[in-house]
Amino acid sequence: MKKLFILLLVILCTACGTEKQKKIEIGITQIVEHSSLDDVRRGVIDALKEKGYDENKVNIDYKNAQGDFGTAQVIAQEFNNKSDIIIAISTPSAQAAANNIKDKPIFFSAITNPESAGILRKNVTGVSDKSPVKKQVQLIKKLLPEVKNIGIVYNTSEQNSFYLTDAFTKAAEEEGYTVKIKGINNISEMASALDTLLPTIDVLYTSIDNTIASTYPLIVEKCNKANKPIIGATKSFADQGALAVDGISDYQVGYQTGEMAARYLSGEKIENIPYEVVEKSEMYINKEVAEKFGIKGE
After folding, report:
1. Measuring CA to CA, which residue among 199, 206, 191, 195 is closest to residue 153?
2. Do both 255 and 240 map to the same domain?
3. Could you give the CA distance from residue 208 to residue 198 in angstroms, rounded to a whole number?
4. Are residues 21 and 80 in contact, defined by beta-carbon separation less than 8 angstroms?
5. Range of 45's domain?
6. Which CA distances in Å does 296 have to 94, 138, 235?
7. Number of domains the chain contains
8. 287 and 178 fall within a common domain
9. Is residue 4 one of the residues assigned to a domain?
10. Which of 4, 88, 106, 138 could, after both became Cys, cross-link 93 (CB 3.0–4.6 A)?
11. Which Gene3D superfamilies does this chain map to (predicted)?
12. What is the pLDDT of residues 237-277, one digit of tens each?
């Protein structure tokens, strides 16, 4: 009887140990799938793995809202019930998470201005992808010295897009450029907006905007037909057909976010982890497009 009791005790202790080794549940919410945000997500996961939080220690539940803010709210509510930490990629997803999750840590990624997005709480931190708009204006001046009119299409319902459009416009006007802006509400309006805007401009500037990123093949196609170059805000735009970019790496934004989440999982308190901005920008030039526009030596 005594041996049986000891055996049961050992089994119970083993079960307790197994319970203690339960995997960490990480919820990743993303507003829409496109190459820029996908690169951010890849950076997050790679950083977690390199810091020791691989599939042996964590379960990652990734959900995509397919561009719908209401769906992003539902995802946030679901993660509030079952996730230990939440990583929110894009401004709408972070806003949905901050609206619905009050007591669990939220790490935002790929948000331009967290202050104006209204997401900063005691349980929220992350990494901003704020664009170096002055460098991007200087890139236009350097590569396309004959340019006078710059065009921008942006989604009026995206807070980050409004902020970046305003910041870029001010920087460009300070350099003497005329900026022509076309606001749209959704993806379906992109084609007609470009048809209206392209005949009136010399170059199109594409900022960090989920609607822009989701329709980039269309933007490149329309600009190619109109023989108008594109200057972009992130490396993936140059990869897809923009002439050049002076901007940050989406992957690096995600990687820094993953590092930040790993710091929390290793014991740091979230209130002691202030949000960060990716400071380093890099220039990328699409050589094929550069040749088309007669640009050499870069």
Report:
1. 206
2. no
3. 19
4. no
5. 24-130+249-279
6. 42, 17, 20
7. 2
8. yes
9. no
10. 88
11. 3.40.50.2300
12. 999 999 999 988 899 999 999 999 999 999 999 999 999 99
